[in-house]
Amino acid sequence: MYSTDRALQIISIQHELVMNIGLDLKLEKMLNTFMQRALQRLSLSSVVLMDFNQCELTETPKTHSDGNLYCYPQLSSDYKRKLVEDAKSFYYQGEVAYSCISKQSCHYYFLKVPQFGVLILERYATEIDEVILAALEPLLIKLSASCKACQEHQNLIKEIEARKFAEELLIEQSMLDPLTNLANRKKFNLDLLKTLSSSFTTKNIGAIFILDLDRFKVINNTLGHAVGDDVIKVVGKRLQECMRPGDTLARIGGDEFVLLVVELSVDYSIAIEKAKKIAKKLAALIASPINIDGNIFSISASTGINMFPVEADSVLSARQQVDVIVQNAEKAMNAVKQANRNGYSFYNKQLQSSSERKTQIEKYLKTAIQNDEFEVYYQPLVAVDGKVLGAEALLRWSNQSLGRVGPDEFIPIAEESGLILDIGSWVLEQVCQILSSVGSNDALKYISVNVSPRQFIHHNFVDSLLSALNRYCINSRQVRVEVTEGVVIDNIDLTIQKMKYLKDKGVVTMLDDFGSGYSSLSYLHQLPLQTIKIDRSFITDIDQTSKNHVIVDSIIDICEHFSLECIVEGVENSDEFAYLATKNITAYQGYYFHRPMPKYDFITLLEH
Amino acid sequence: MGLLFGQYQYSVIVTGESLQSLINAALSSSPQALLIFCCDESLKNQTFFDPILTSLQVPVFGGVFPAIIIKDEVVDEGMLVVPIFSDVKVMVLPDLENADSSDVDMLSDSFHFESAMILIDGISRNIDFALNAIFEHFGNKLNVFGGGAGSLSFERKPCLFTNQGLLMDAMVVIFMPISFELAIGHGWEVLDGPFLANEVDDNKIIQLNFRPAFEVYENVIYKFENKSVTANEFFEVAKTYPFGIERLDDDVLVRDPISVEANSLVCVGKVPENTLLYILKGDNKKLVAAAVNAVEEVTQATVMEQGLLFDCVSRHLFLENEFKDELKGITSAFNNSAMLGVLVLGEIASSTSGAIHFHNKTAVAAVAKH
Fold first, then answer.
1. Does B247 touch chain A (CB under 8 A)?
2. Does residue A524 register a pLDDT over 90?
């Protein structure tokens, strides 16, 4: 060694090593810097730090950073195991600050790191002077403090990360549909917003597909919600097959899914073609039979498609576009529903104008009663001999701006907007008035009133009906209630309950348009019905169409079996009547006998 | 064991044709690998190297150096292709400037090896980091030697030969199953010190004893040698007075100061902060004796076969004609066994404790043990 100032040498070793402690907040990195420096400054072969705070000494460390043993450089497992044993013996020696074990040409120095562990220095050939070892003692206190500070910091980081992870998990869960584990509407909207922002710049056209399962309520109502849920899960899984990276599939309603497909093309016509293919693939995936506990379901969906970004007349923000895109896809989907279901449709301008007309209709409907724009027409129901038995009250509307608007157009809008409740009450009032004015007339046994689903399930419906009958002193048998299968399907338990109550009060319930809708026989026997009206679609050209013979004959048989009155509507010519006249039918309705007529014409008819 | 290397092939002309011809000649002895040393001065065109190197079916390694040493001769032009008769595993750590320890961790250690030759781009900034990472990963039982490749002009350019072609800013590690004994000697002696390097930035000494490093340095040189040191002609004087980093109970680690930047001294190789530094002085005879003695010590204790010498280019510049004596002494210590070597920009060697050091102004000889 060179002739140096010994004191300066010792101080410089202390200083150099102390200055290399605590240079990082990560324990492993901090120790690596310190050990590297110590190894070079003290001419060592290896440096090892054992952390006695972290785990038991008996544990066998595997690598240089396995929780309780830090080595520089890496050491073999056998070597480390032996060091652990020696360190353990040293640790339990009590107050001894350091000790040395010499093996062959190597010297191992064990130094206590207060309240932390043991530092092991390996030296080849030359021993370390005791004065130097003593000089290392003060820096071991700093090493201990720094190690503990690093551990506390790491624990804090872990805690923060765990909290962050939990928060992210919660956010993620709040974005998921619990039944299918697909995205929910919130997540879908966010993804669409993100996609829109990028599609503005990339000019890439994407599409959203809103799929509503057709007649899904039948499954829920007949087999229970558990089965319905299983079907939804299967459909969700199948739809996932259509997804590419970057696409989003979400469940946004009971039986409603939405698929966001990004970057179809920058060319609009190519994008449309691709969207058609996807729609067909989605339909095929859904159409494949679903087996749930042995029950085989064949279902279909009505799909509305809207391409984005949208061409808008006014400038829309991305957020507004999200709303518009979804609404438009829903409009397209509803158009499919109103047509034949089981298909797909792209949103287009026509749908937009039909939507605008709907808005107009709704606007004028609100004032139609007070402006006296409604009129009730009556279409007689006759016996086989042509004698009037009753009539169906049919609403007609004529508006100054819109002209005559057919019930097929305005009734669904009234139903959707809730205006049907007031309109229904007004119709009932009109029917009661006419019944009251014609008095007890043998020619007229009853007038039937069409009641919409919304009206029927309204909590006040039965009471207001009975109250009107009471107010006009009308026998409850004189007013009949016509409901469609949709009323039944929407809420079978409540429907049964209300029908029973009406029956108890003497009001007859008729099931309208039978055969055109769900036609599930599973609920027919549960309903306290007295009358079924066979849908007009089976009656048209019945004399020429043998297929309809089977259906109509079957329904007539069912009515006989359940002791129900059977009524046919839409009888338009003598040939049709000739076929039906031989059947066990209670009443006939149609142009062949009478067209719907205004109140006074109807009264005149009755008087003659 | 057999010989480490066979009959080397030398050509004073460095072209694609001459390279191919040397390689063909070297391959005729069916070696397991090829070592290529090329003189920087002769390398005017580098483009022909890549297609030849990448098409070789045997491992190839080597580098471009200021000069080649063949026995006791310094050859500063031409190139040398040496057939290697040892199983070698060549691993490359590219992009040294941006490498981290995980890149070193990816180097496989499934191969059984005793030693490793490291050839590194001598101008790279991350040399100390890379050597530390190798030590940390492979432990203190791996005997390491080698040096820095590149040009004495300190111009950054590709300087390492591998099967991937000619590389720059890289480290090439050649693992070998052969045992080597290392001789490390420099002969520099303390002129003054110690000084506390209280402020350092990697390879730049900013303050010594809390004063500007250059001021301290020029005072010492003036006081002891009566010489003035100026920033402009710094290296002319400083090549005689390097720094020595103190290591407990061990020889000092030499650091070559090469320039002055705003009163700070820039060295070849990292200087740790808060370490003790000495200013050293070189005496030609002592320098030669130290290198020769170090090699003699090893060769006398070892039944040796052949040797590889990595001698510092600045020793050659400092010793001038007497460098020949150093080579003669070393060759003689080798007892006329084959010895090849290069002048390098920094020497690499494992110490007796196993730690890998980057030296300056030092001679490192790796003696293949019988």
1. yes
2. no
User: Do the Cβ atoms of A40 and B190 come within 8 Å?
Assistant: no
Q: Is A106 on the interface with B (CB under 8 A)?
A: no
The pLDDT value given to residue A211: 95
pLDDT at B319 over 70: yes
**Residue B301: which H helix or E strand, with range?**
helix B284-301
The pLDDT tens digits for A416-470 are 888 999 999 999 999 999 999 887 667 789 999 999 888 888 888 999 999 999 9
- More confident site: A350 or B8: B8
A6-157, CATH topology level: Beta-Lactamase (3.30.450)
Which positions in chain A touch B273 (Cβ < 8 Å)? 16, 19
| B355 in A contact zone (CB under 8 Å) | yes
Which residues sit opposite B160 in a β-bridge?
A: B63, B167
Question: What end-to-end distance do the CA atoms of chain B give, in Å?
Answer: 6
**A124/B278 Cβ within 8 A:** no
Angle between helices A407-417 and A349-368 (to 10 degrees): 80
Inter-chain CB proximity A125 and B352 less than 8 Å: yes
Partner B contacted by A8 (CB < 8 A): yes
Residue B276 contacts A, CB cutoff 8 Å? yes
Q: What are phi and psi of B117, to 5 degrees?
A: -90, 130
Tens digits of residue pLDDT in B309-318: 999 999 999 9
Query: Which of A3, A19, A73 lies closest to B135 in CB terms?
Result: A73
**In this complex, how many residue pairs, one in chain A and one in chain B, have their CB atoms less than 8 Å apart?**
91
Whether A7 contacts chain B with CB within 8 A? no
Taking the Cβ of residue B137 and every Cβ of chain A, the question of whether any pair is shorter than 8 Å is answered with yes
Domain A359-607 - what CATH class? alpha beta
Q: Give A245: exposed, middle or buried? Use CB within 10 Å, 0-12, 13-18, 19+.
A: exposed
| Residue A367 and residue A575 in contact, taking contact as beta carbons nearer than 8 Å | no
Average pLDDT over residues B245-255: 90
Burial A30-39 (b: 16+ CB within 10 A, else e): bbbebbbbbb
Q: Does A36 touch chain B (CB under 8 A)?
A: yes
Domain ranges of chain A: 6-157, 185-347, 359-607
Interatomic CA distance for residues A410 and A412, integer angstroms:
6
Q: Where are the alpha helices (DSSP H) in A92-184?
A: 130-174
Q: Looking at mean pLDDT, say which of A311-315, B96-100, B160-164 comes out highest.
A: B160-164
Locate A446 and state its tokens. 């009853």
The predicted-structure confidence for A540-559, as pLDDT tens digits, reads as follows 888 777 778 888 888 899 88
**Chain A residues touching residue B281 (CB < 8 angstroms):** none
The percent of residues in chain A predicted with pLDDT above 70, rounded, is 94
Pick from A40, A65, A106 the residue to mutate for testing the B interface (most B CBs within 10 Å).
Answer: A40
Tell me phi and psi for residue A253, to 5 degrees: -165, 180
Contacts of A72 in chain B (CB under 8 A): 136
Q: Does residue A16 belong to the interface with chain B, where contact is any CB pair within 8 Å?
A: yes
List the CATH code of the domain at A185-347.
Answer: 3.30.70.270
Confidence of residue A64 (pLDDT cuts 50, 70, 90): very low
Burial of A97 by CB count in 10 Å (0-12 exposed, 13-18 middle, 19+ buried)? Answer: middle
B196 in contact with A at a CB cutoff of 8 Å? yes
Q: A12 vs B194: CB contact, 8 Å cut-off?
A: yes
pLDDT class for A538, splitting at 50, 70, 90? confident
- Judged by CB atoms closer than 8 Å, whether chains meet at A19 and B351 is answered as no
- Confidence (pLDDT) at B30: 95
pLDDT at B103 over 90: no
With CB atoms and an 8 Å threshold, state whether A4 touches B193.
Answer: yes
List pLDDT tens digits, range A141-164: 999 999 999 999 999 999 999 999
What's chain A's Rg over C-alpha atoms? 42
